[in-house]
Amino acid sequence: MKSTDETNAESHQDDQGDFPGRFAYEGLERAIHEKARLGIMTSLVAHKEGLLFNDLKQLCSLTDGNLSRHLKVLQEEGLVEVWKGFNHKRPQTLCRLTLEGRRRFVEYVGVLERVITDAARATLTSDADSPFGQKLPSPVGPKLQGWSPA
Questions:
Q1: How far apart are CA 134 and CA 1, in angstroms?
Q2: DSSP β-ladder status, 51-52 and 80-87
Q3: Other beta carbons within 10 Å of 104
């Protein structure tokens, strides 16, 4: 059975299957989407038991300060947990994803997969399917009749 959102979206589709908000990608969370935080999340999802601060720092090519700041953002979002401890009387910091962080990261990756699918599908679309009804010009090619650069 279709959800109300799916039914409403289908009733507002245009002839290309698009509907309002189709390319909004609401699941691309700002907290995860930043390059350094995406690297941190990917590293931690690959190491379920977590990573020591210095190992994570090396994997993501970050400085101590940058990693600390990004971990704080992820921690405030409930995506990462940070544990302090000792190993042979030396302080250590362990970083790992929370269950919520793992769930939200998997959802985030699903949205990224949609972005990739949409982009790949668009590049495979023939010029005849152009919304302009004619072949799109190359930047140095002939101009579209009735169209001018903005």
A1: 39
A2: unpaired
A3: 20
Sheet of 90-97, strands arranged across: 51-52, 90-97, 80-87
Q: 34, 23 in Cβ contact below 8 A?
A: no
Q: Please write the tens of the pLDDT for every residue from 135-149.
A: 555 555 556 777 777
Domain ranges of the chain: 26-119
The contacts of residue 149 (CB under 8 Å, 6+ apart) are none
| pLDDT tens-digit readout, 50-74 | 999 999 999 999 999 999 999 999 9
**In this structure, which topology does domain 26-119 adopt according to CATH?**
Arc Repressor Mutant, subunit A (1.10.10)
Buried b (16+ CB within 10 A) or exposed e, 51-89: bebeebbebbebeeeebeebbebbeebebbbeeeeeeee
